[in-house]
UniProtKB/TrEMBL annotation:
Residues in Penicillin-binding protein transpeptidase domain copies: 407-618, 769-922
Listed InterPro entries: Beta-lactam/transpept, Beta-lactam/transpept-like, PBP_dimer, PBP_dimer_sf, PCN-bd_Tpept
Similarity comment: family membership: Belongs to the transpeptidase family.
TM spans (from-to): 18-38
Positions of the Penicillin-binding protein dimerisation domain: 58-358
Signal peptide as annotated in the record: none
Biological source species: Clostridium cibarium
Name this polypeptide is given: Penicillin-binding protein
Keyword Cell membrane set for record: yes
Source organism superkingdom: Bacteria
Compartments where located: Cell membrane; Membrane
Mode of membrane association: Single-pass membrane protein
Keywords: Cell membrane, Cell shape, Cell wall biogenesis/degradation, Membrane, Peptidoglycan synthesis, Transmembrane, Transmembrane helix
Length: 957
């Protein structure tokens, strides 16, 4: 019998209980959300608008930059800035507000902040105003701009629809290539649509209209708007909308509409604030350069943070939306010291974006101050003297050089290395960059994207050249280039970056080397024969360079010693010194560095066999040139030779002495792998033989080397469709059947002759040192390098590190860092050497036959100097160029304190630059001249203009 047991009552499941509890909790939360976001939305929105808080950042003043006497070269001034903050009410009134603001700015002659690279020209055509002239940089800037505005999304959808994983690098490149095909006008149309500008004419469209507008293209919408607004009008709205969108990506709701506005304008806006939701006026510091262009090449300028550097600066605490940074010169090098510490205020704002209450204030702290070695008075004389001298040379009624449009000056304290002046012309006013977005279209083009076609047309016409714009300014990828360096660039620091041949200003060093090596004596004379053909056993019978640049003036200087040679700049004398140095050193490859070993000690290049830093020591950007030496010349020659040999082989003609069927030598993407291997093998053999020039006595001779090339040449002939076509074209002209073996042998012999005989002989020829002895050949240095050389020469052999900065101080004046004079090298020179060089340079400035005597004849302080006139290249007249006019000097003669270097591009004669040196000396020796030579001070025109007429000092009280 089965008895039914009563069922046990099941206990509730913990899991089910948990689910019930969680369901209740979420139901409450969900209900609360519905209550807050739907039923009470308007109430809470109003309360949020009227009680929201935000942090208002306050820019920190940049540190002050002083000259050595405490004159302020860069400081800050408080100006009015107009801001726009996004709020609900501001959005509703956007177009009315912006219209009112634009009208006020226009009526008061104010501009607004405009960093948008999408511009509109006078023909109502949109275009991109790039901030660089390099095509690759322009492409990168354009791609970044289009990607930031989302144009890549449609391209990616068209190219790779349905792809879920990230795009590969090659796919990204494909997208970028498509982005570059989108024209500025198409971008304009796209922004008009995406920024909803149709609300200008239909502020409250119905749902049907919204759908209709969404289906219309940007071009169609723009055409509708064009009935009332021009392209420029529409761009003004795009400008603000775009700034707000870009800021929204970065978490900001405010943009700057206008900076540096006048007080009267600010007051007008302040009176209308109730009708301008979102608009506010505040005081902000902006950079001020009291002397405008003065020392701009040294000071540099500030600019908004480039998009490619945003992440780097954001990590360093910068506000990438509004902060400006130094982008060149001292402003850039000492950015960390100058930038200061930002502060700001936490405030409550209402629905119009107005501040209703300040909650917390964080004080700003100015940046540290930088004290330069620059002397304002000397700098002014250098800049104005250079500018006026260039204009005088350019417009001379007797011997004009219309191409003289550029130049540079450097003045150095010879016993410390402190740079007293550094001028580059043309220069610029850094004040125009101190306010973000206020460059005019014309200024943007002038500085960042010059119209080389327009410039080229005027250039050719003004010089009467038989050239086309395409010949002088060839287009590469659609962008005109300037391979002959014809366009004057205001941003290019010709003093620290312009590499120039020194010409005869190098001769004092050649003389010094000869005296120190003992190959000449101070009183020994060398007879100038007019042409340097006295050593055919060393240089060959065809080598006979002229003694003088202007051979119609003199056929010979007769018996010449070192002082007279420097006075009259006798080439023959210094050619002979170079020859003697070469012979003394062993007449071999090592002997080719005889001059270079002295030049390196003076800062004219560095020994390529060492790891010495190639720098003068200055704190700002510089180039660094090299003196002639075997290794550097060999490397340079080989580099150019690779292009020469390509041109010879592919033309089918070698210097008019050997002809053959054009050979396929260049690499081509369409080449098969085997063809690529054959070409690589041939080029590797050529490169290896080049490297052995002058260093391996067992290297293969011409015939033996040619034999090693034949197999590779034949392989290329058999594999290259291009070469086969060349053969077919040759035979089609009825010239007979081509013997490929004979052709291969000819090409091998041509290559071997070029590498071993012609180029090899050129590389190892002692003739290069002869050219170098008078500052020609591969010798190229910046004016700053020449200043290091001349100051070392002037002080008797102590080479100092050149520098622009004396010290860094806090805003309170406490010294953070001080820069003491630093000796780089100490050259032991004989007193007789120093005296002979000084005497020769004194004669150049003062004796009747001296090359600069015309300028310094009446100057009351004894000086030494040397002119230099060096060609740009052998075809300079064809392209409108002329010799560089270079001049170096020091003063006083017996106890030098200051050294000067000046160059005027295309200035014609070295002596033409000497007046700038006199202006610099007048400013430097101002107190001495006024005390000891008052008559000179009162009668000298240049003294009155560059010293008495200099701008007043500007110091902190």
């Amino acid at each position: 019998m089965i008895v039914n047991k009563p069922k046990k009552k099941k206990k509730p499941s913990r899991y089910k209980s948990f689910l019930v509890i969680m369901g209740v909790v979420f139901a409450i939360i969900f209900g609360k959300l519905i209550y807050i976001q739907i039923y009470k939305h308007d109430d809470y929105k109003e309360r949020a608008d009227t009680t929201s808080t935000k942090f208002v950042p306050e820019k920190a003043p940049r540190g002050i930059i002083y000259d050595q006497n405490g004159n302020i070269l860069a400081t800050n001034t408080q100006t009015y800035t107009m801001m726009y903050t996004t709020t609900e009410e501001a959005n509703k009134m956007f177009f009315n507000t912006i219209d009112t603001v634009f009208k006020i700015l226009s009526e008061n002659g104010e501009g607004f902040t405009d960093d948008l690279i999408l511009k509109v020209n006078e023909n109502n055509e949109p275009y991109f105003a790039y901030k660089t002239t390099a095509k690759n940089d322009q492409n990168a800037e354009e791609i970044r701009f289009k990607r930031d505005r989302g144009l890549n999304e449609k391209v990616e959808k068209d190219l790779y629809s349905g792809k879920e994983e990230d795009l590969t690098d090659s796919e990204i490149e494909s997208v970028n290539a498509k982005l570059l095909e989108i024209t500025p006008k198409e971008v304009f149309y796209d922004l008009v649509k995406s920024y909803d500008l149709i609300k200008l004419i239909d502020p409250n469209p119905s749902s049907e209209k919204i759908k209709e507008y969404n289906e219309m293209s940007g071009e169609a919408l723009t055409n509708l708007l064009r009935s009332k607004y021009s392209f420029k009008d529409l761009r003004n709205y795009l400008l603000i909308k775009d700034a707000l969108k870009i800021q929204s990506f970065k978490g900001y709701k405010s943009v700057t509409l206008a900076s540096n506005i006048k007080k009267d304008t600010a007051l007008i806006i302040l009176q209308k604030l109730n009708d301008l939701p979102g608009i506010d006026i505040k005081l902000e510091p902006i950079r001020l350069y009291p002397y405008n262009q003065l020392a701009s090449s040294v000071l540099g300028y500030i600019s908004p943070i480039d998009s490619s550097n945003e992440q780097k600066y954001e990590l360093r605490g910068y506000d990438i939306s509004s902060d400006l940074i130094g982008v060149s010169g001292i402003e850039s090098t000492f950015e960390e010291q100058l930038k200061g510490v930002k502060g700001g205020t936490t405030v409550k704002v209402n629905s119009k974006g107005r501040v209703t209450e300040e909650l917390f204030k964080l004080e700003t702290y100015p940046g540290n101050s930088v004290h330069l070695t620059i002397d304002k008075g000397v700098q002014y004389a250098a800049e104005q003297g250079l500018k006026d001298t260039i204009e005088s040379i350019r417009t001379s009624p007797t011997d004009p050089y219309p191409g003289a449009t550029r130049g540079a000056v450097v003045a150095v304290e010879v016993n410390t290395g402190r740079i007293l002046a550094s001028a580059s012309y043309p220069n610029y006013d850094p004040n125009i960059f101190a306010v973000s977005g206020q460059l005019s279209n014309a200024q943007t083009k002038e500085y960042f994207s010059p119209d080389l076609e327009k410039f080229g047309i005027n250039y050719i016409k003004s010089r009467g050249l038989n050239k086309t714009v395409d010949e002088l300014f060839p287009a590469v990828d659609g962008v005109r280039t300037d391979p002959n360096d014809l366009y004057p660039r205001a941003f290019y620091n010709y003093a620290t970056q312009g590499l120039i041949p020194p010409g005869s200003t190098f001769k004092p060093l050649t003389g010094l080397a000869g005296l120190e090596a003992g190959v000449i004596q101070p009183t020994e004379t060398i007879y100038d024969q007019g042409k340097f053909n006295a050593h055919p056993e060393t240089y060959g019978t065809a080598f006979a360079p002229e003694c003088l640049l202007y051979t119609n003036y003199h056929s010979s200087h007769g018996d010449t010693d070192i002082t007279h040679a420097l006075e009259v700049s006798c080439n023959y004398y210094f050619y002979e010194v170079a020859y003697r140095l070469y012979k003394q050193a062993g007449s071999n490859v090592e002997a080719l560095d005889s001059l270079a070993k002295y030049a390196w000690k003076f800062g004219l290049g560095t020994d390529p066999n060492t790891k010495e830093r190639a720098s003068t020591g200055i704190e700002i950007e510089e180039n660094f040139g090299q003196v002639y030496n075997f290794k550097s010349f060999k490397n340079q020659s080989i580099l150019y030779a690779k292009f020469e040999i390509r041109d010879y082989l592919e033309s089918g003609d070698y210097r008019g002495v050997r002809s053959f069927i054009p050979f396929d030598y260049s690499n081509n993407d369409a080449d098969s792998e085997k063809l690529k291997e054959a070409k690589t093998s041939l080029k590797d053999k050529v490169a290896a033989r080049f490297e052995k020039i002058g260093t391996d006595s067992s290297a293969l001779g011409t015939d033996a080397f040619a034999k090693t090339l034949v197999e590779d040449i034949k392989n290329i002939m058999n594999l290259s469709d291009k070469y086969k076509q060349n053969v077919s074209d040759y035979e089609a002209k009825g010239k007979g059947k081509v013997n490929l073996d004979s052709q291969a042998q000819t090409i091998a012999e041509v290559i071997a002759r070029f590498v071993v005989n012609d180029k090899g002989s050129e590389i190892t020829s002692p003739a290069q040192e002869v050219y170098a002895s008078i500052g020609q050949g591969m010798n190229n240095f910046t004016p700053t390098q020449l200043a290091a050389y001349v100051s070392t020469l002037a002080n008797g052999g102590t080479r100092y590190k050149l520098h622009f900065v004396d010290k860094i101080t806090t805003p309170d004046g406490a010294v953070v860092q001080e820069y003491e004079p630093e000796v780089i090298d100490k050259i032991q020179l004989k007193d007789s050497t120093i005296n002979a060089i000084r005497e020769g340079m004194y004669k150049a400035n003062n004796d009747e036959g001296g090359t600069a005597a015309r300028v310094f004849a009446n100057f009351p302080i004894r000086t030494g100097g040397k002119t230099g006139t060096a060609d740009f290249n052998e075809r300079q007249k064809e392209i409108g160029r002329a010799p560089y006019a270079t001049y170096v000097s020091f003063a006083p003669l017996e106890n030098p304190q200051i050294a000067f270097v000046g160059v005027i591009y295309d200035g014609g004669h070295g002596s033409s630059t000497a007046p700038v040196a006199k202006a610099v000396y007048e400013a430097y020796f101002k107190e001495k001249i006024e005390k000891e030579f008052p008559a000179y001070a009162s009668t000298s025109t240049s003294y009155q203009k560059y010293v008495t007429g200099a701008p007043a000092n500007n110091k902190l009280s």
